[in-house]
Structure of Flagellar hook-basal body complex protein FliE:
Amino acid sequence: MNSITQVQQDMLSRMEQFKTLSEGGQIKPAQLFEGQMPREGFATAFDQAIRAVDAQQHKSGALMAAVDSGKSDDLVGAMVESQKASVAFSALMQVRNKMTNAFEEVMRMPM
């Protein structure tokens, strides 16, 4: 399996995780009043996704800087990592846009 397909499969699995988390059970506000924040949830999953994309961007940047400075001659590897970072960032932005649209839609609902 090539690396682009692997990144796409990874992003699809993350999107499935987000979908599963968003379809979770009822909200339990009593947990918030008891001072216990839920350990797993959408915010945690989204934070992990952002951190993973950020790490991918930094890795890509470091490889490109190494090629630019002449420390590495693996241009193909650096370009593949750059494309992985680009796909991951694009997927993250699409998820963010979908979530923003969903939030706006909920806010427009009559009470």
Notes: Residues 57 and 92 are 12 Å apart (CA to CA).
